Give the backbone structure.
Amino acid sequence: MTRLLILDFDGTLADTRTNIVMTMKQTMAHLGYRVASEDEIASTIGLPLDEGFRSLLEGISEEKVEECTSTYRELFEINRKAYKPSLFPEVMDTLRRLRDAGIVLTIASSRSSRSLNAFLDEMGIREYFAYILGADKVSHAKPHPEPVLKTLAELGFKAEETLVVGDMPVDILMGKGAGTLTCGVSYGNSSREELLSCGADHVVDRFGSLIALSTL
């Protein structure tokens, strides 16, 4: 039986794709870069923001990366208030049922701690998590296993009693690198095929399916 769930946020708990894609496009247009397509931008969701811009804007200097991330964060705050993301179906009830079953819930996100915590407060789900880890709290972000290894060390759990859940290949690779079981969710920003091809042990189509999976 699983004792610890390490959950991604964007594309797993909350549907933030519209906000991310819109803000990325606005940032590129504002700074005079070629505006990437939605699919190109979606493929970078799950990476830290600076790595996303490096991937989308080949050859960009570090000074310009910093300018992009600063502009993005300013625009994202404006967009977040105007277009509030929502939790995916079944998330609130499933989190409650998992916690009531004695499973410890945590988050490992590529989003900054400030932004992540603001979302958790606004969505009313902070209370369900014993540990919340933003990208600024680790030296190596996904797909490196550090976020999982740090969570295990902080909470005193073993890899074999842990399930890492996310919607992107970087989430699966992070968990596999730390020796945990992994579960992809197909309703986020990548497909079932992509998640399986990078080694996901399970793929679910509904967040509520984690209840049965976590009690195996």
Observations:
- The two ends are 5 Å apart (CA to CA).
- The chain has ten helices and eight strands.
- Residues 62-82 form the longest helix (21 residues).
